[in-house]
C-alpha cells in the first residue's frame, strides 16, 4: 500500500508541475497577445475609416490610411493564425470577422462574375486596327515628365497599344517621345492646355486611329485638364480620357474631393467612356466609389485577377539594397458597364514612381 500511495503522490506532483508550466507559459504569452489585440483594434479602426462616407473621407489623413485597407487582410490572417495556435478564442473570432469583411469588400479582385473578361484575345493576336472591337490600352503617370520615353515607346510596340494616356507630362517628355518614334505607332494626340492648377504636368492622350472628335478640356476640374479623344471602334464610338485629380495630401484634400466629384459628373453624359489615369484613389475610398456610381466600373475591381498595385515604383531603401514593392492601386481604367476591359498587366517604367497599367478593351463585349 505504501508503494501505491507513493505512486499517487508522484502523479499529484507531476500534475502540479504541469499546471505550473502552463501558468508560466500563459504569463509569458500574455504580452504577445496583448500586442495582437492592439493590432486587431488598429485594423478595426482602419476598417471603420474605410466606411467613412463620400465628402468626409478626405479629412486629414483618412484617405492615406484607407489606401492601405487591402493589406489589413494580411494582418488579420497572421493574427488569426497566432490566436488559433495560442487558443485565444475571442481574438480568433474577432480576426475571423475582420477577415471575412475584408474579403467581401474585395471579392471582385478574387473572383469575377463577368465571364466576358475570360474571352478576350491574347495581346499577340491583336491587329492594331480600329475597325475591330478590341484595343490594347495603357496609362502611366510619368512623374513630372521624367519617365523613360524609349521604354514607353517600346512597351507600346510590344503590347500593341492603340490608346495611351499619360499624366504629369511636359514639353521635354513629348519631344523625347517624338524622337523615340511614338508618332509612327500612335500618330494622333491630344495635349491638355496648361492651367494654373496642373498637378505635376499636363495630361496627354495618344491614339492609333484618327479620332472623330477631340477636346483638351473634357470637364471643368480643379486639377490638370482632361484631354479626350472619341474613336470609332467597330460599330461604336468610344471616348477616351486621361485623368489626374490631385493627391489627398492634407494641403490638397479639398481639391482631391472636388476633382473626383467633377469626374463623377460624367455619369450623366450620354457618350461611351473609358477613363484612364492616376486617380490618386483606390476602390476603398468612398469618393472613388461615388465616382463610379451605378454607371462606371473599375477594371481592376471587376477582373478577379487580384490587385494590380501601381504605386510606388522604382523606390529603394538603404542605398538601393532593399526594393520597396508597389503598395497601392491608384492607377485605374474606369469604363462604362457595357464594355469589357480585362487582361490587366502592370509594367515598371524607368524614371517614373508609378507602374504603367495596361488592359484589353472589348467594345462589344
From TrEMBL:
NADP is among the record's keywords: no
GO MF terms listed in the record are: endonuclease activity; exonuclease activity
Q: Which UniProt keywords are listed?
A: Endonuclease, Exonuclease, Hydrolase, Membrane, Nuclease, Transmembrane, Transmembrane helix
Under the heading InterPro entries, the entry gives: Endo/exonu/phosph_ase_sf, Endo/exonuclease/phosphatase
Q: Does the keyword Transcription apply?
A: no
SUPFAM superfamilies attached to this UniProt entry: DNase I-like (SSF56219)
What's a Pfam family in this record? Answer: Exo_endo_phos
Membrane-crossing residue ranges in chain numbering: 32-49, 61-84, 91-111
- Tell me the ranges covered by the Endonuclease/exonuclease/phosphatase domain, including all copies: 138-354
Task: Quote the protein name from its UniProt record.
Answer: Endonuclease/exonuclease/phosphatase
Query: What phylogenetic lineage does the species belong to?
Result: Bacteria, Bacillati, Actinomycetota, Actinomycetes, Bifidobacteriales
Amino acid at each position: 500500500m505504501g508503494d501505491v500511495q507513493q505512486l499517487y503522490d508522484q502523479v499529484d506532483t507531476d500534475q502540479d508541475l504541469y499546471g505550473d508550466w502552463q501558468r508560466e507559459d500563459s504569463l509569458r504569452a500574455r504580452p504577445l497577445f496583448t500586442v495582437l489585440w492592439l493590432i486587431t483594434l488598429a485594423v478595426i479602426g482602419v476598417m471603420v475609416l474605410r466606411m467613412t462616407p463620400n465628402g468626409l473621407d478626405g479629412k486629414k489623413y483618412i484617405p492615406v490610411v484607407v489606401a492601405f485597407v487591402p493589406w489589413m487582410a494580411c494582418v488579420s490572417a497572421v493574427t488569426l493564425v497566432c490566436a488559433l495556435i495560442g487558443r485565444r478564442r475571442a481574438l480568433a473570432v474577432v480576426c475571423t470577422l475582420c477577415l471575412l469583411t475584408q474579403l467581401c469588400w474585395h471579392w471582385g479582385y478574387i473572383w469575377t462574375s463577368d465571364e466576358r473578361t475570360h474571352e478576350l484575345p491574347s495581346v499577340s493576336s491583336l491587329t492594331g486596327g480600329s475597325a475591330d472591337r478590341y484595343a490594347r490600352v495603357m496609362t502611366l503617370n510619368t512623374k513630372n515628365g521624367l519617365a523613360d520615353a524609349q521604354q514607353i515607346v517600346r512597351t507600346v510596340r510590344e503590347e500593341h497599344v492603340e490608346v495611351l494616356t499619360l499624366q504629369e507630362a511636359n514639353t521635354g517628355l513629348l519631344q523625347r517621345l517624338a524622337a523615340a518614334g511614338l508618332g509612327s505607332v500612335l500618330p494622333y494626340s491630344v495635349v491638355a492646355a496648361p492651367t494654373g492648377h496642373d498637378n505635376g504636368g499636363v495630361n496627354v492622350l495618344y491614339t492609333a486611329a484618327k479620332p472623330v472628335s477631340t477636346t483638351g478640356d473634357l470637364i471643368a476640374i480643379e486639377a490638370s485638364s482632361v484631354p479626350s479623344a472619341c474613336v470609332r471602334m467597330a460599330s461604336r464610338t468610344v471616348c477616351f480620357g486621361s485623368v489626374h485629380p490631385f493627391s489627398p495630401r492634407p494641403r490638397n484634400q479639398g481639391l482631391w474631393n472636388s476633382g473626383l466629384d467633377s469626374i463623377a459628373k460624367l455619369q450623366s453624359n450620354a457618350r461611351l467612356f473609358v477613363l484612364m489615369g492616376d486617380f490618386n484613389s483606390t476602390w476603398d475610398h468612398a469618393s472613388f466609389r461615388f465616382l463610379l456610381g451605378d454607371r462606371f466600373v473599375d477594371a481592376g475591381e471587376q477582373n478577379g485577377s487580384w490587385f494590380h498595385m501601381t504605386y510606388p515604383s522604382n523606390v529603394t531603401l538603404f542605398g538601393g539594397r532593399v526594393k520597396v514593392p508597389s503598395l497601392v492601386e491608384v492607377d485605374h481604367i474606369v469604363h462604362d458597364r457595357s464594355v469589357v476591359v480585362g487582361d490587366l498587366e502592370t509594367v515598371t517604367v524607368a524614371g517614373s514612381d508609378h507602374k504603367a497599367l495596361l488592359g484589353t478593351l472589348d467594345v462589344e463585349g
